[in-house]
RNA sequence: GCGGCUGUGGCGAAGUGGUUAACGCACCGGAUUGUGGUUCCGGCAUUCGUGGGUUCGAGACCCAUCAGCCGCCCCA
């Protein structure tokens, strides 16, 4: 049996790859505007990085990692997310000592999670993410959120919803955590087994549970927003004011709890609509203890990650098409062996001049070659056969008007060049 | 990891146990010995995701397995 693509992965075929290039271009462009610089980290890291950086209690670490041993008996893991590796690099390269602070980075790359695939969820996913590390200024939170929103807007997407929340600082989180345990503990046996486990490990995530969302204790659960201390409150207020000033609408959702352990203060999610159960396009937030946890100084960062796969769902739902096209300037129809050889030479000349050019490689008849040229959307076709070779000319046909012109073969490249330039001028 | 649905040529899709597996699109060839987008004619699945079983006979029924989609969980 033929070998098939691994589960949860996909080939990006030529008809889809322009869209992928388009997304990448938009991402780079927006990062350039906001002055974030690209960082590339390895596809695999020491397994410990994710245990320490992402959190032992998270689903990612507990059941979704592609972990393997290399020949030197090192435990390595294909990266399931981008923040921990970037922070590892921040610490390893002592970026906290760089002149420009905060350090503003972005990455584009593949992530790997062992999950059950469905629409918008694959085992290899492509993420664009941003990390601004070294400042706890709340206006930086707003900048990162606005970058994400501007990115989506640049595609013309409109059905977006920004949801924000604050988890507060360590002190606030601790107080809230205790209140949650007090709230749920007496009746915890009425909750699902996941929630029973969460009670001591991470009671915050009980709020996130879909199974027990109708339980009366959910509605009356203590809200993190009531436990924010003065510092945390001010931070959150500042973020909201900055968003208001930029005219970015948002909703505050006190139950928005991000899945990874390292978040504090601001968390946010951008949701799309109209494409099935999965609506989260982008998730992010501020992380406090992560840098020091990985051996760096006590600084915090803020970032987000979003996937191409889900952006694609949103683009489909709103019927957005990429702006990329690749027109064929000239197709050479060669009739006979001698002409075929000459065509190869002429193609090379055209391409050296920046003219997109192609020919037949399937030994098609003349008619078939024209059909191919038409399918490619060639704007001109050059016909070369024995008759032309004898007279040292080539017949250049305009495929829109059907007009055909004899051109001396040694003037052919310049002639096509002129046609292409005229066409470009008239289109501008 | 759990539950539901699905799997026929490059694509879409008929076929609900009986001989040579409809049809549409795409593709290739011819009508037009060297000129496209229209038309007409012809060609194009030793085989129905894979493996096994039931049967005189299986694309259809059964079992297993793989994959996809949807839902749950969770997340990007």
UniProtKB/TrEMBL annotation:
Enzyme superclass (EC) = ligase
CDD domains per the record? HisRS-like_core (cd00773), HisRS_anticodon (cd00859)
In alphabetical order, the GO MF annotations are: ATP binding; catalytic activity, acting on a protein; histidine-tRNA ligase activity; transferase activity
Please give the GO cellular component terms listed in this UniProt entry: cytoplasm
Q: Which domain of life is it from?
A: Bacteria
Record bears the keyword Ligase: yes
Q: Where is the Aminoacyl-transfer RNA synthetases class-II family profile domain?
A: 23-327
Recite the UniProt keywords alphabetically.
Aminoacyl-tRNA synthetase, ATP-binding, Cytoplasm, Ligase, Nucleotide-binding, Protein biosynthesis
Q: Which Pfam families match?
A: HGTP_anticodon, tRNA-synt_His
Which residues are L-histidine-binding?
81-83, 113, 127, 131, 258, 262-263
EC no. given is: 6.1.1.21
The Gene Ontology biological process terms listed for this entry are: histidyl-tRNA aminoacylation
InterPro entries xrefs: aa-tRNA-synth_II (IPR006195), aa-tRNA-synth_II/BPL/LPL (IPR045864), Anticodon-bd (IPR004154), Anticodon-bd_dom_sf (IPR036621), His-tRNA-ligase (IPR015807), HisRS-like_core (IPR041715), HisRS/HisZ (IPR004516), HisRS_anticodon (IPR033656)
Family of this protein: Belongs to the class-II aminoacyl-tRNA synthetase family.
Oligomeric state and interaction partners are given as: Homodimer.
- Alphabetical list of PANTHER family matching this protein: HISTIDINE--TRNA LIGASE, MITOCHONDRIAL-RELATED (PTHR43707:SF1), HISTIDYL-TRNA SYNTHETASE (PTHR43707)
Q: Which NCBIfam families match?
A: hisS
Record's protein name: Histidine--tRNA ligase
Give the organism the record lists.
Pullulanibacillus pueri
